[in-house]
């Protein structure tokens, strides 16, 4: 299920990215502003607020001194905005798209001139959606000063969310480049996707991106897409820590969340409902998500003996809950956000990221160690060739299923047998060092000649074998002639004894051979005859 669901949400993320790009290019809010001047004070208390016919009006008298080069900064989320100075409209933001109502997330910097001094300025703010509430925050000063003040107020949150996003991308690159060949579960991959989506969502919430990006409507879609799909990779990551990971509830929720995301996206695409209007569906999904996580966590604590990673995760979740509660309390008392929740998420990402990295590296070392042992089990230490154990494994694997006859049969096979002549004489007269050199010289030649089209094995001592699927007589003769040429070249180097190899082969014949053991026996008989002929030729 994990792999299927991972593919599903990755595909959705790709579609979502394309949709965000599409929105960035085509969906925009129509903006009109007077000639911008160099565009810092917080003017929250200066603006008088009134409401009429579904619109909110903010008004104040502008300073009487020269205000050229100054701006008033105001943030709108899903708002139509009209700004009047002395009953003259000087700035407006409205949607001119058929497929979406929103004007996006945006900072509005209304340029002022010296002729505006002492006049009344009115901001008419009309929510695009019934439940949208305008912000009461205004900024006054030069454009650069206002931007600096906005960034300064949100700098901590921006740094925290940027760090989460960077950690997510670093972990993602680690997974793709370092862990791609490791045979481990995809928990780390799911965690990295969750971290990236969390960072993107929190970054959109900082209200800094809209200062610099022209595609404010696209930010709306990016924000919602990240929030919609975020629970799935987190749940796929989390379930692997619990013994109840196979419970069907995990799967049902993941599919349910994907369906919710799909419905919301389609409603937006067809212009039926904007993402903001269907946000309650994702809130319901997240509520169910919290219940599932909380329920399974309690179940694991009470019923199953949870491991170290699950304990650490539960501790981190508690930290997030506490930090979120503290942020809510702070906001209720002061009316301003303290970003405790973002810091709690950063703590979670860092702690769990480090723990998972350490766990994955441990698994990597174990896998590497297992690979070494596996290689030793199937490899001859002196020559680097496969050994007899590998030969048995590979001959057993040469069975294939005949789909027409619905029975197993042996694939086309040519089996070669080789025996080194005078190896004992070399060992007795010149020592095992030269005997080993004899063996390695021949093994290199066999691998070069027969290894390209098959596999070579050292069966033990001075006996070697090769298996290939090439059964053509002309190709077999060609390889044996290449062996002869190789031995002639080696003997030109004046080794301590003449280097010679007795060779024989047999092609698997289903009419004559019951198994490859019979083929090997025939190849061995041919090799033995060749060896006897070589001995007679010496005499």
Describe the 3D structure.
- This protein folds into three domains: 2-26 and 152-370, no CATH class; 29-136; 388-538, Alpha-Beta Plaits, CATH 3.30.70.270.
- The chain is 55% helix and 18% strand.
- With 539 residues, the chain is of the alpha+beta class.
- The strands form four sheets. Strands 1-7-6-9-4-3 form a six-stranded antiparallel sheet, with no helix packed on it.
- A hairpin with a 2-residue loop joins strand 14 (454-460) and strand 15 (463-468).
- The protein contains 15 helices and 16 strands.
Which characteristics define this entry?
six-stranded antiparallel sheet, Alpha-Beta Plaits, four-stranded antiparallel sheet, elongated, 3 domains, 15 helices, 16 strands, 539 residues, alpha+beta
The separation of the N and C termini measures 72 Å
β-sheet strand percentage: 15-25%
Reading side by side through the largest sheet, how are the strands ordered? 1-7-6-9-4-3
Please summarize the sheet with the most strands: 6 strands, antiparallel
- Category from helices, strands and their pairing: alpha+beta
Radius of gyration: 37 Å
Total strands: the figure is 16
Helix content: 40-55%
Shape summary: elongated
Could you tell me the mean pLDDT?
82
Number of helices: 15
């Amino acid at each position: 299920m994990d792999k299927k669901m991972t593919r599903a949400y990755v595909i959705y993320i790709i579609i979502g990215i394309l949709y965000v790009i599409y929105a960035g290019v085509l969906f925009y809010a129509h903006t009109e502003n007077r000639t911008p001047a160099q565009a810092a004070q917080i003017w929250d208390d200066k603006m008088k607020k009134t409401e009429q016919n579904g619109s909110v009006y903010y008004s104040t008298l502008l300073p009487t001194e020269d205000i050229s080069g100054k701006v008033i900064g105001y943030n709108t989320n899903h708002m139509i905005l009209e700004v009047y100075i002395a009953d003259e409209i000087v700035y407006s933001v409205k949607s001119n798209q058929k497929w979406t109502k929103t004007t996006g997330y945006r900072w509005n910097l209304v340029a002022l001139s010296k002729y505006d001094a002492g006049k009344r300025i009115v901001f008419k703010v009309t929510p695009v959606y019934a439940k949208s509430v305008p912000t009461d925050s205004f900024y006054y000063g030069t454009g650069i000063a206002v931007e600096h003040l906005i960034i300064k107020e949100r700098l901590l949150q921006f740094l925290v969310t940027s760090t989460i996003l960077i950690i997510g991308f670093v972990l993602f690159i680690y997974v793709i480049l370092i862990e791609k060949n490791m045979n481990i579960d995809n928990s780390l991959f799911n965690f990295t996707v969750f971290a990236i989506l969390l960072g993107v969502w929190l970054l959109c919430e900082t209200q800094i991106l809209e200062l610099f990006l022209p595609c404010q409507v696209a930010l709306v879609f990016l924000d919602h897409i990240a929030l919609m799909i975020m629970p799935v990779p987190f749940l796929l990551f989390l379930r692997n820590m619990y013994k109840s990971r196979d419970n069907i509830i995990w799967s049902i929720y993941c599919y349910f969340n994907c369906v919710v995301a799909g419905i919301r996206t389609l409603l937006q695409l067809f212009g039926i409902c904007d993402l903001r209007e269907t946000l309650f569906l994702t809130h319901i999904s997240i509520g169910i998500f919290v219940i599932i996580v909380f329920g399974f966590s309690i179940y694991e604590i009470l019923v199953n003996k949870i491991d170290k990673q699950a304990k650490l995760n539960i501790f981190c979740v508690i930290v997030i809950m506490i930090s979120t509660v503290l942020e809510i309390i702070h906001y209720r008392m002061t009316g301003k956000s303290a970003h405790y929740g973002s810091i709690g998420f950063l703590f979670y990402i860092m702690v769990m990221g480090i723990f998972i990295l350490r766990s994955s590296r441990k698994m990597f070392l174990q896998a590497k160690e297992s690979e070494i042992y596996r290689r030793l089990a199937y490899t001859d230490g002196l020559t680097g060739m496969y050994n007899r154990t590998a030969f048995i494994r590979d001959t057993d694997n040469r069975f294939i299923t005949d789909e027409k006859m619905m029975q197993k049969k042996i694939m086309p096979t040519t089996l070669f047998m080789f025996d080194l002549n005078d190896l004992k004489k070399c060992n007795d007269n010149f020592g095992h060092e030269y005997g080993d050199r004899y063996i390695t010289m021949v093994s290199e030649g066999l691998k070069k000649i027969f290894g390209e089209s098959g596999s070579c094995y050292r069966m033990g001592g001075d006996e070697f074998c090769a298996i290939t699927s090439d059964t053509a007589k002309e190709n077999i003769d060609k390889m044996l002639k290449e062996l002869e040429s190789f031995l002639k070249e080696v003997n030109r180097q004046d080794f301590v004894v003449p280097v010679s190899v007795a060779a024989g082969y047999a092609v698997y014949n289903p009419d004559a051979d019951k198994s490859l053991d019979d083929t090997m026996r025939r190849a061995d008989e041919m090799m033995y005859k060749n060896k006897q002929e070589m001995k007679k030729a010496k005499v």
